[in-house]
């Protein structure tokens, strides 16, 4: 009987020890592995910066230059100055002739190119009637090739245009403009003389006798093919 009680006591003791050991182990494990709620790490605040305005397309986009660099807007060739440009060609173009008598309009011109003259001659010119002393203007840029006092033409000016293809002839002048001289460069619209009646012109009808000659390869101021000035001065027709 005593033996049984001792055996039962041993069993109970062993069971109690085992329970105590198990409980303390779980407690250590829970303390080691259980973690309370983890606070999330605060995210640094990011400054959004100033509000961006809507992007408006550039009304004048700049073409990219070489190597991706920004270039400059392309300039139309016609607007570039220099030899061969449209602007330079217009100022020197023989077809862009100015009416050579100040104050006279194209509507006042008359085509007298084929009118008959004495000794069976044809006029080969246009007569522009104007008051004595009215300024005579250079019809284009060029050079004074010859100043000549002839029996028929009186005081005359022979002007070559820059290319040397055409000669402009002004006759019956009252006098030359001050400083006018042979080989002088003159500009379109420059005063070269004054309307008169020198030579065989009538004092009752002062006028400018104006001719256009297409020069030959010799570039002789007294010789060339006569062209009708009327369609050039009146209608802006180009010289052939």
Task: Please characterize this protein's 3D structure.
- With 240 residues, the protein is of the alpha+beta class.
- It has a domain at 100-230: Glucose Permease (Domain IIA) (Distorted Sandwich).
- Helix content is 19%, strand content 22%.
- It has three helices and nine strands.
- Strands 1, 2, 3, 4, 5, 6, 7, 8 and 9 form a nine-stranded antiparallel beta sheet that branches.
- A hairpin with a 5-residue loop joins strand 4 and strand 5 (166-176).
- The longest helix is centred in the first third of the chain and has 32 residues, at 2-33.
- The radius of gyration is 53 Å and the shape is globular.
- Residues 17-95 have low confidence and may be disordered.
Q: Which features does this protein show?
A:
240 residues; single chain; nine-stranded antiparallel beta sheet; 22% strand; 3 helices; globular; Glucose Permease (Domain IIA); alpha+beta
């Amino acid at each position: 009987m005593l033996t049984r009680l001792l055996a039962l006591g041993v069993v109970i003791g062993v069971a109690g020890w085992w329970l105590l050991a198990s409980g303390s182990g779980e407690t250590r494990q829970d303390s080691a592995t259980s973690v309370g709620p983890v606070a999330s790490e605060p995210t640094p605040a990011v400054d959004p910066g100033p509000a961006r305005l809507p992007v408006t397309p550039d009304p004048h986009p700049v073409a990219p230059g070489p190597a991706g660099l920004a270039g400059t807007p392309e300039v139309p060739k016609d607007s570039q100055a220099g030899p061969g440009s449209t602007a330079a060609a217009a100022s020197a173009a023989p077809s862009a002739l100015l009416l050579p008598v100040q104050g006279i309009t194209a509507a006042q011109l008359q085509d007298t190119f084929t009118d008959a003259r004495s000794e069976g001659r044809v006029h080969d010119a246009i007569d522009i009637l104007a008051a004595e002393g009215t300024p005579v203007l250079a019809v284009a840029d060029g050079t004074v090739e010859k100043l000549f006092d002839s029996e028929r033409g009186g005081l005359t000016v022979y002007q070559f245009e820059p290319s040397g293809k055409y000669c402009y002839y002004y006759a019956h002048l009252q006098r030359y403009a001050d400083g006018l001289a042979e080989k002088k460069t003159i500009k379109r619209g420059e005063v070269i003389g004054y309307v008169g009646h020198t030579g065989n012109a009538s004092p009752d009808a002062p006028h400018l006798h104006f001719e256009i000659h297409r020069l030959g390869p010799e570039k002789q101021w007294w010789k060339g093919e006569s062209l009708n000035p009327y369609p050039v001065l009146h209608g802006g027709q180009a010289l052939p």
